[in-house]
Amino acid sequence: MIGSALAERLRASGDEIVRLVRRPPRGEDEVQWEPTAGILDPAALNGADAVVSLAGAPTSRLPWTPSYKKVILESRLDVTRTIVDAIHVAQRPPRVLVSASAVGYYGDRGDEDLTESSPRGDGFLSAVVDAWEAEAWRASDVARVAFVRTGLVVGPSGAMPPLRLLALAGLAGPIGSGRQWWPWISLHDEVAAIDHVVGSDLSGPVNFAGPTPATEAEFMRTLARELRRPYGVPAPAFALRLALQDAAQELMLGSQRMLPAALLNDGFRFRDETVGAALAAYAGGS
Question: Among residues 76, 67, 138, which one has the least CA distance to residue 101?
Fold first, then answer.
């Protein structure tokens, strides 16, 4: 979802996009690679202004079995390691690597304001993100490296379709207490912010979240309103933990009041400054 929208935006600006694909290429704008085997021709990166790495197995696939936790971690490390190794060998390495990352770095932090200087939290996702970012940072000796710690992206795929189905079925309501903070960002602002980071001097962690934090209750109440459905059916925390174990805590019940300090300090302007604006655009198809 994010990669397709980003490619569309960059092409509209006149940039040339080359996609890394795991199947045989279908055109000159595609290069085949195999990250699980560490295979990527370094020539594909020669002279690139930027490499944007967004791949990784979805954390929204449930339940998190021990084998799938391994997939979540290794899919991110394989992709990043393969790209960084190719950057090191390329004759004319790219100037910047923008690597996907996630809000999970911070763990469950209650009402604490979380900026890029906040320390790492606890939990499975925190450990995954820490290892993921460390792998990307290996490229910092030859390129500028930025990690985009993204929250819930309000767009047509990813985490939104199941939330939309809940709301359409009249089942939107508080998950647990509903007071936990859910970092969110519209798809429009996600790709605009990646474009901004590519052209900026930002390096290291960059928080990708809307500038007005929202709780889970505020998010789901607003979604229900935009879809003209009722709000109020609760999902008890104990039932979620029983069914989904640690995934429930880290994906739904954990609280991260993440603030986009680096983006705002660098002059980035959000189109969708509130969760209401983001969900109105989503419900309206833009």
Answer: 76
pTM of the model: 0.95
- pLDDT, one tens digit per residue, over 79-126 is 999 999 999 999 999 999 999 999 999 999 999 999 999 999 999 999
Contact 192, 263 (CB under 8 A): no
Distances (CA, A) of 41 to 85, 228, 244, 246: 10, 50, 40, 39
Q: Which residues contact 166 (CB under 8 A, 6 or more apart)?
A: 172, 220
The domain locations on the chain are 2-157+183-212+256-271
* CA-closest candidate to residue 133, choices 86, 98, 87: 98
Which CATH fold topology does 2-157+183-212+256-271 show?
A: Rossmann fold (3.40.50)
| C-alpha to C-alpha distance for 272 and 49, rounded to whole angstroms | 28
Question: What's the count of helices (H) and strands (E) in the chain, helices before strands?
Answer: 10, 10
Q: What is the DSSP string of 71-129?
A: HHHHHHHHHHHHHHHHHHH-SS--SEEEEEEEGGGG---TT-EE-TTSPP--SHHHHHH
Structure token digits, residue 275: 């969760």
Q: How far apart are CA 71 and CA 94, in angstroms?
A: 28
Dump pLDDT digits (tens) for 161-179: 989 998 999 989 999 999 9
From CA 180, how far away is CA 177, in angstroms rounded?
Answer: 7
Contact predicate 184/219, CB 8 Å = yes
**21 Cβ neighbours under 8 A, 6+ residues apart:** 30, 31, 32, 33
- The rounded mean pLDDT for the chain is 95
